[in-house]
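@channel anyone free to eyeball this complex?
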Amino acid sequence: MSEHSAGRVLVGMEVHLQLKTNTKCFSPTPYRYGAEPNTLIDPVVMGLPGALPVLNREAVRLAIRTGLALGCEVAEVTKWDRKNYFYPDLPKGYQISQYDQPLCIDGAIEIDDDDGNPKRVRIRRAHLEEDTGKSTHDEGGAASRVDLNRAGAPLLEIVSEPDIASAGEAMRYLDALREIVAYLGTSDGNMQEGNLRCEPNINVLFDGGGKTPIVEVKNLNSVRNVGLAIEYETERQTRAYHERGQTMENTPRSTRGWDDDKGVTVHQRFKESEDDYRYFPEPDLPPVTITRDFVEAEREALPELPRARRARYREALGLSEYDAGVLTAEPALSAWYEQALAGPEGTRDAKAVANWIQGELLRYLNDQKIDLAAVALTPEGLGELVDLRAAGSINSRTAKDLFREVIESGASPAALVAERRLGQVSDRGAVEAAVRAAMEAQAKAVEAFRAGNEKARGRIFGEAMKQLSGRGDPQLVNEVLSELLG
Amino acid sequence: MEGLTNPLDLPVAEMAARVRNIDDPLTASELVETSLLRIEAIDPALHAFLRTTPELAREQARVVDARVEAGEDPGPLAGVPLGVKDNIAVEGVPLTCASKILGNYVPPTGATSVRRAVDAGACIVGKTNLDEFGMGSSTENSAFGPTRNPYDLERVPGGSSGGSAAAVAAGMVPLALGSDTGGSIRQPAALSGIVGMKPTYGRVSRNGLVAFASSLDQVGPMARSAADARILLGAIQGTDPADATTRDLPAVTGSGAAELAGLRIGRVEEFSLAGVAGGEPMEAAMGDVHKALEEAGAESVELSIPLVKSSIPIYYIVAPAEASSNLARYDGVRYGHRTSDAGALQALYAKTRDEGFGAEVKRRILIGTFALSAGYADAYYKRAMAARSALRRGFERAFERCDVIVSATTPTPAFLLGEKVDDPLAMYLCDILTVASNLAGIPVMNVPAGQTEDGLPVGMQLWGPAGSEARLFDVAEALAETTGHAYRAPVIPAGGDA
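replying in thread with the prediction:
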């Protein structure tokens, strides 16, 4: 750390989130990551003369769904604008975006601050736009290549207010956003594959009002790197402020790139003045009116979001912080847990179901290196198992054996118990008969026990259980044995 | 042409009816061959076509003839040769926009309007000349040389759809597609003595029309009569999933003449040519037309739409602004011309575009870029858009008081080649009577209104509210009956008849 007086870092986040539509934002071609270059293109994507964009309404729906989950207001009328600039990966020479009437405004993402207290990071706006293609440049500048597969994919640009006050908060903001869109199913949110890209705008405030110039950092491809870049910038800007007197007033904003190998940011360019993109309304696309009925229907269809779900698990179900975290980490697992919880007689014992999942199910997935979707066992099946145990119909050994079987076969545990008569024997008469038979068979052990050898009791207990084919209720067997042994 | 009428000179309805009639010997193939022969004979003097497409036309004709023989109906344009302005894509046929920037670009798909015309039986015989990207009023801004006016080879045919206008006027094709951003169908139709209609914005799909100014562009028919134009518009109209700006409008169907008695004819003060140099023959012709209308029992309504006076400045901000963006895609990266002398990226752009675009296109890109720039957009583009909305409302109010507005189409008859080409402002003023309809999005057609003493065609415009094309055609047919003004074939010195 610097020996200089520390300031407060302020970060505003710009996130580009690729929405998970079947086809592009303004043309009927699909997009997927990793396809052969320039194979997912069409006349609109190529910007051929005479080709016109046609809005993919699903992109608007997914944007609205995401915006609502972020607590945004959805515009009643939204429109598209052209953002004009020349670059080889921008085929039309303009990007269809939204300028002064974004689809969503005024939302927030709740995160924990560095002390673990809840904090709201405000969202200024979220607008829909088309993605550009991807340029790659050979080492030494011999050639540049353009891949237009990505061009035209729908993006939701989510702009936060500068409410983020540390690297940790920035990382938790991104994790929270990724988790939310995973629950919504509106985006894969994968930073490696570029369907979530983020550019933090960072500066530092000092006591007395001094501010460093805002730096936008690009080329960040993981949440961890976002944190590292913010830490690096905080340190660098603090030094520049104290040692060179660099302030917002005397130095323009700039863009820096993250160098992953060196773990530093590198100056790219100053933004002397605002870039002039010559925005104007896109004449090829009529404005879209979004009815309140549509918005309300989308709001109704929102799932419980992970943060709220975790709180409910802790408060209403009594799960630990840790358990609640594990069970909500993946939307598929969380949905599985929810289904396993829902029994015919109401909610099952949340802790018992959670234990099965964390103890047996996750271990199984890990050992087999498979995905939850590939497991034969249904949530209902696990629920049955929990019910059988709760009712005392099977003992814990039988339950574990059954689990190992049904996780492979997917069969119903209740049906198997009935079919194989695996139910725990808790009939007092049957248990007494078995204990008597065991005492006869192990007469020597009875003698030894009565002579003071406590260990001999185990042998008689084992024999009684054997008589009951291992299904005896151990508590009852013990009780009867104590009575008869005197 | 003496005695027997060449089938290519028949009204389109009759031409197509004969092709559709299995008992009539006239075939689509014969019409196509006749058209191609006429082009070969006449076009060297006119340069209406940038290229002919004989193989395509013959193949389309074979399909039409085969369908007739199979007892099917190939449609209302069966066998009718069609010229297509070369800013409208025909699948597999080079598309130039009369610009060098497109190089040898060949579109992989055709325009919706073209496909619909072909589906109705039309046979495409060639691509017609235009001012580069539709920017001009004389067809002199073509990178491939100007088109000449069939009535006087020293004069321009108008523009930008000058090639389509000259091709129809000279009888090389009975029908042609044009596009109209600020008068580019009507002005050349007027200077070339034919009928041309700019439909309501959104009636005809722009898919495959190379964009000049997207909110103003519209594809429309050019023909020798209102009846012919109506058939072509009927074939190409209608909403299109590939163009989000198409609208559901009352369909143009049928045929027929309107009852002129009781029709309220609007005369807009701001369209008067009184005092305009060279405008006397147009004023005289308009006076005659209004007199004939009154004699037929129409009611004359005097109107004023003050913002019409501002339509040229509004247009020359909105259209170049959109054009500056629409033409950004011609960058030498993916298709079309690319400079052989590119170094770094900026040089690739600058040299490619400098070599590829003509002077007028560059001028408009500069105007448009300026009008959209930060610090100027409020003063220019936004004010122009607000004025445009007010202008549209002005027309809506005017059409509460009248059924049709009648005006001249051009301030003067056809001017000489070279007369205005170095004076952009004078050229822009040619559009004074036409641009308001594009800004308002309403349908307007040009119909013949007689000739000057020198035998140059004079045109007039019929304006209607959005969606009223059928009414305009009805009025045009009634008016032609009343006044006797109609297309008359020019005598073209350079070539004989096929």
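from a first look: Residues 407 and 469 of chain B are 16 Å apart (CA to CA).
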